[in-house]
Amino acid sequence: MNAFESGARKAVPAVLVYAQLGDQVLMIHKGRPGDYHAGKWNGLGGKCEPDESAMEAARRELREESGLELPRECFRPLGILHFPNFKAHRNEDWIVWVFIARVPREHSSGLVSECAEGKLEWVPRAKLLELNLWAGDREFLPYVVAERPFQGTIWYHHQEVLRSELLPLADMAGEPGPARGAG
Questions:
Q1: DSSP state of 113
Q2: Which of the four pLDDT bands, split at 50, 70 and 90, describes residue 22?
Q3: Cα–Cα distance measured from residue 10 to residue 12, given in angstroms and rounded to the nearest whole number
Q4: Could you tell me which residues come within 8 angstroms of residue 140 by beta carbon, excluding any fewer than 6 positions away?
């Protein structure tokens, strides 16, 4: 029996949403005291609820954190990320579905500037990598910016990336892509 089957380790399903309006991407600056992500900039998102699909979670999280109520057709699944032992103190792996959400101008007026998670800001796509991000985000955000489907695994120790494997989905059938760090 492996660690997941025995309950010693658990997988947490979650979503990340990168809402886009023109060349701007909606980001949240996490500021809640005690938050594992405090001080970092992230896409919007969070954990899936029981019996909720990743698409449903993406729509709900975007609505809860930004006030934007977007129809399903505005969302495009873009990638999936695995973060083994991301919260080691809880024995949690995170499995994260990454979405792009195109925000029609007529829906942009519902946006709030702050929520319980932090402050929201539209950031030019070209400036995303200048933000204080998780180190692993710097590795997959170029796929998000290019709107190139991908999958990957990023191993952390505290807030440091130990290694990563990221592949564009089109390359899945071909040769393995480059990996970073020691195996």
A1: S
A2: very high
A3: 6
A4: 79, 81, 98, 150, 152, 154, 166
Residue whose pair of structure tokens reads 């695994």 in the numeric block: 153
**Which ranges of the chain does DSSP label H, i.e. alpha helix?**
3-6, 54-66, 137-146
pLDDT digits (tens, 9 = 90+) for 109-139: 778 888 888 999 999 999 999 999 999 999 9
What domains sit in the chain, N to C, each tagged with a CATH number?
6-164 (3.90.79.10)
Average pLDDT, the chain: 89
Cα separations (Å) of 25 from 13, 14, 92, 106, 123? Answer: 23, 20, 29, 16, 5
- Gap between the Cα atoms of 68 and 147, Å rounded: 21
Tell me the per-residue pLDDT of 41-81, one tens digit each, with 9 for 90 and over.
Answer: 999 999 999 999 999 999 999 999 999 999 999 999 999 99
The phi-psi region of residue 63 (left if phi > 0; otherwise alpha if psi is between -120 and 50; otherwise beta) is: alpha
